[in-house]
Design a protein that fits this description.
54 residues, alpha+beta, two-stranded antiparallel ribbon
Length: 54
């Protein structure tokens, strides 16, 4: 996976609807699983800048 979700995640859900491979798992802080296709859509839509390249 080329991206990680940092502790800055507010669990707002913006990235959930943008991920084409449903690779984002909900929680207090979201995480990205192995289904990630590394498209970067989540990075572009995160209002808090919590998703970064590894």
């Amino acid at each position: 996976m080329a991206f990680v979700i940092t502790e800055d995640c507010l669990a707002c859900g913006a990235c959930l609807t943008e991920c084409p491979s449903d690779a984002i798992q909900e929680g207090d802080v979201y995480s990205i699983n192995e289904d990630c296709v590394e498209c970067g859509a989540c990075v572009d839509c995160c209002p808090n800048g919590a998703i970064q390249e590894k």
